[in-house]
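Sharing in case it's useful to others searching the archive later.

Someone asked me privately for the predicted structure of SAM-dependent methyltransferase, so I'm posting the question and my answer publicly. Question first, with the sequence:
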Amino acid sequence: MTEATWQWDRSLYAGSARHYSVGRLPYPSSLAEAIGTALGLDGSGRLLDVGCGPGSLTLLLAPLFEVAVGVDADQDMLVEGRRRADDIGATNVEWRHLRAEALPADLGTFRVATFAQSFHWMDRSLVARRVREMLTPDGAWVHVAASTHRGPADDETLPYPHPPWREIDELVASYLGPVRRAGQGLLPAGTPSGEQEIMLEAGFTGPIRIEVDGGMIVERSVEEITSAVFSLSSSAPHLFGDRLPAFEADLRGVLTTTARDGLFAERRQEVAVVIWRP
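And my answer, the predicted structure tokens:
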């Protein structure tokens, strides 16, 4: 897929923000420890989290910096981020409503820029060049890749049934069609790859790769799995239109039939961290 075949639009995650806190598994605390150790973070400097969503990574890493700035194109995501920051008493976080392509937007310079499950939605060559100029000479670009809406297929004995992801995917396809949806467009070949070439062309060196074990088995409720589905761009609530109530009823039917005592279990995904230097 070439990046020209799909165009971003503001409906990409419309209606999904409120589902993130419920449906997405939080990043493990060991992720902050691994990034902090790798970069020698000591509470100084500024963090720029690009495509921050509701602040899942922003708030985890904020204690490692003097100031953290979360940037996202979805206003509802930022509202959710502010709410979560207030809930945990995070006072060193700022939120900016803008697309990554609008950077630097007079935001200044940063010690670290992070992209968590977000870079593929952007004009990657443009954003890489602009963010590189925003990093301090000793700064770093950190890409975090992990699926936080579902765990891996797990053959070991779990305390509760594994969520029926295959059936869920089939149900989504029965409502929205077999080709992955994203905003007002389609992603027949998925999101683009080739990040390494883009980063090298933008003048970055590296990368250094770290893997953080997701590890623990988590229990998840019918409500959490329902929200996990609605947290995805490919099954965001707006895509169903007036069929949303029917889809949700069918989804909950699949889940309640499969769950035991209303619960599922699965293991957290490993988190891949890729660090580039300007």
